[in-house]
Amino acid sequence: MIRAAAEADGSRVIPRVPVGEWIDTGFDWLKDTFEVFFDFVSTFITSVGDGFLAVLTSFDALVLLVVFALIGWALKSWKLGVLSAVLMAFIISVDMWQEAMDTFVMVVIAAAIALIIGIPVGILAARSEKVSNTIRPVLDLMQTMPPFVWLVPVVALFSVGFAPGVVATLIFCLPPGVRFTELGIRQVDAEVVEAGHAFGSTPGQILRRIQIPLAMPTIMAGVNQVIMLALSMAVIAGLVGAGGLGGEVSKAMSTIDIALGFEAGLSVVALAIYLDRVTAAIGNRPAGGGRLSRLLQRRRDAKNAAAA
Amino acid sequence: MTQDISDPVVSVRDAYKVFGRRPERGVERLKAGETRDDLREDGITAAVIDASFDVSDSEIFVVMGLSGSGKSTLIRMVNGLLEPTAGSVKIAGEDIARMGAADLRKVRREKVSMVFQNFALLPHRTVGQNAAYALEVQGVNRSEREQRAEEALRMVGLDGWGGQRPDQLSGGMRQRVGLARALAAGSDVMLMDEAFSALDPLIRREMQDQLIELQHQLGKTVLFITHDLNEAMRLGDHIAMMRDGRIVQIGTSEQILNDPATDYVAQFVQDVDRTRVLSAESIMEPPAVTLGAEQGPRSAHRLMRERQTTSLMVVAHGRRLVGLVTETDVAEAVRSGTQSLDGIIRPVPAVAAETPLVDLMTAAAESPMALAVVDDEQRLQGVIPRVTLLNALADPTSTTTGSMEVIG
After folding, report:
1. pTM of the full predicted structure?
2. Cα(A226)–Cα(A111) distance, rounded to whole angstroms?
3. 3-state DSSP call for residue B362?
4. CB contact under 8 A, A199 and B123
5. What does the pLDDT profile of chain B (408 residues) look like in tens digits?
6. Please, are residues B354 and B361 in contact by the beta-carbon 8 Å criterion?
7. Which residues of B touch A198 (CB under 8 A)?
8. How far apart are CA B69 and CA B62, in angstroms?
9. CA A108 to chain centroid
10. Contact by Cβ (8 Å): B311, B327
């Protein structure tokens, strides 16, 4: 509408800036120059994903259901264990298990890469205003750009399939990992950090023994956000042939299959709830930790008592 | 190691700390006579201006000032958390103002420890691990640091608490952990930044007593920051009064109370509980006349008539206090012809020279006679008639000019 009006008007006050073409040229250049690199990344991600998936699918779905439930129990309580089992059972019952595992693998790989990059960058940003100010607009761009838009250049660079799905997901889920880490470290009580300095700690000791442990709940909230965003983007990546639950959703869209759409969609919800509760449980463990760490603590105490 | 006044443990000379753009320029302007407010208009904050002071070995040196006076900045320059913009800060002779990061860390590990206002404990570690933090940084092995941390916890009265987490402790106990952490570090100098200000008044008293006791036991050199003048007077061997970034007076509590250098200090000390700061020694008067224990009732009677007094302190050889005789008892003895004072000497309320005035009140109320002030060997140092005591409480300028008359 607006563009039509401007053209009808015939007078362009602000000249057209060919941003799109520039970016297009930029991506072309990237593709030509670093083709080997992108091929390598693509192969690497695909083989890691295939390997992980092969391990997962070598087990029966019911065995994995029990494993997922045990993880929930170990990290928090028997209630989370039961909830986990119910969610997995739902996915199995609607015949979405294989697709859910595809998505799960994509989420885990993308989130892992996002955290490997994001947490150190967050630490740097917390320590230097310059880094912080430089990366902030980049993070804004990554987060606010409509997620579909990332799919286009990613497909151009990596073609279709699992690898571009992971890369697009990575771009979208990286920012909270950086932001929460920076926030967490900046929020650590200045007096406690000062105490670290006052007793002669090196900057590395302060980071490892004071800042990271005290920022951990916030960093874990970031991990939780990274995983949730990764899941939502992994579904969108179904549009570029990344498969998994996203693939089922796009199939349902193109065939207007309400039943399939909701079965796949609800499976996404089930997976999301599971990932959310489990990562939240890692972040907000009660004093003394969850079931597992309490068990370990008891064993340690017994050993100490025996030693004494 | 010998330390005397000429060889202070902490020595700060002409130290400035200016925040803002081009702080060195700020120092030059201050030296040229510009004020703190002049600089503030240009967005430069002069936190500490031309501070010089010495802390001698094994004393508690208190820096007292209200918020914004620069005292927290000052203490942070002493362990290099803040680098002075100008001037020198020497610890055991080494100037830390010109030290590199690694050397500075070494000084912090070995020579200076710190106790913080809000305790600054690590919430994810146990009390024992917190107390051992400094040792961990020093690279002491686990068994030794556990043992030394336990020892430090015992010194502050927290034995058996090592396995708890800080959030399971009350405020007073947490600060004991902070104190134990500083003690375990084994450094000679302890910096205490408003260490007791966040505590309830009763707990604060208790902690002050404990600090004094620990300091006597261990002989630590303590630099203590506070905004509470009563605390400063209670703890400080010497007190530096700070205002607007400058040290306006350094002296003992009695010097500051009785001889304030500026109106600001005078105004400040107005509200001090003088009874806790002034000691018997500082207000006592020389006994006008004393009676030798070997003398008889007749000479006592004559002395009393001459001096127009109704009672006399009786001292033995070497001015050792024996007691007191009153006019009625002496008159009775003279009439009955007794030759010796034996039998009419009454016990006299005697107090130690360093007793604070607050502890003289009860004795003064119970006895109509003057209080005797004695030293460790019971030698009579002076007397405090009730009127002198009242005077001391009332008027800062007349504490040492009471009358010679001893009123019975």
Report:
1. 0.75
2. 6
3. helix
4. no
5. 444 445 789 999 999 999 988 899 999 999 988 888 888 888 889 999 999 999 999 999 999 998 889 999 999 999 999 999 999 999 988 999 889 999 999 999 999 999 999 999 999 899 999 999 999 999 999 999 999 999 999 999 898 898 999 999 988 899 999 999 999 998 999 999 999 988 888 888 889 989 999 998 999 999 999 998 888 988 999 999 999 999 999 999 888 888 889 988 888 887 777 787 788 887 888 887 888 888 888 888 888 888 888 888 888 888 888 888 888 888 888 888 888 888 888 888 888 888 888 888 888 888 778 888 888 888 888 888 888 888 877 755 444 444 444 444
6. no
7. 79, 81, 108, 112-114, 116, 191
8. 14
9. 7
10. yes
The residue written with tokens 């024992």 in the block is: B128
Q: ∠ at Cα A161 (A160, A162), nearest 5°?
A: 140
- Quick one: three-class SS letters along B230-261? HHHHHHCCEEEEEECCEEEEEECHHHHHHCCC
In a mutational test of the A interface, the residue from B91, B122, B140, B225 whose CB has the highest number of chain A CBs within 10 Å is B122
Amino acid at B36: R
| B228 contacts B243 by C-beta, under 8 angstroms | no
Alpha carbons B144 and B151: distance in angstroms, whole number: 11
Restricting to A residues 64-123, those with a Cβ less than 8 Å away from any Cβ of B are none
What CA–CA distance (Å, rounded) separates B385 from B370? 4
Residue B14: name the closest of B51, B47, B40 by CA.
B51
* A120 vs A125: CA distance, rounded Å: 9
Of A183, A179, A180, A208, the closest CA to residue A193 belongs to A208
Q: Which amino acid is at A144?
A: T
Whole-number Å distance between alpha carbons of A164 and A42: 7
Contacts of A240 (CB under 8 A, 6+ apart): A151, A154, A155, A160, A161, A164, A165, A168
In angstroms, rounded to a whole number, what is the distance separating the alpha carbons of residues A245 and A261?
10
Distances (CA, A) of B315 to B320, B324, B376: 5, 9, 15
- Which residue ranges in chain A fall short of pLDDT 70? 1-11, 284-295, 297, 304-308
Q: Name residues whose C-beta falls within 8 Å of residue B191's C-beta, 6 or more positions apart in sequence.
A: A198, B75, B78, B79, B112, B113, B114, B115, B222, B223, B225
Torsional class of B162: left (φ above 0), alpha (ψ -120 to 50), beta (otherwise)? alpha
Q: Does B218 touch chain A (CB under 8 A)?
A: no
Length of chain A: 308
Residue at token pair 């990546």: A237
Chain A stretch 275-294, residues whose beta carbon is closer than 8 A to a beta carbon of chain B: 287
First vs last C-alpha separation in chain B: 52
Residues of chain A with Cβ-Cβ distance to B114 below 8 Å are: 195, 198-199
Q: Scan residues 160-199 of A and list those with Cβ closer than 8 Å to B.
A: 189, 191-192, 194-195, 197-199
* CA B124 and chain centroid, separation: 36
Q: Which of A218, A212, A156, A149 is nearest to A183 (CA)?
A: A218
Using alpha carbons only, give the angle A243, A245, A251 rounded to the nearest 5 degrees.
70
Q: Which of A197, A210, A216 sits opposite B122 (nearest CB)?
A: A210
Q: How many residues are recorded in chain B? A: 408
Which residue is it, tokens 């005591």? B389
Task: Record the tokens describing residue A156, joined without a space.
Answer: 């151009």
Please check whether residue B378 is in contact with residue B350, taking contact to mean a CB–CB distance below 8 angstroms.
Answer: yes
CA-CA distances (angstroms) from residue B400 to A36, B310, B390? 94, 23, 12
CB atoms closer than 10 angstroms to residue A220: 19
- B322 DSSP 8-state letter: E
pLDDT at A123: 95
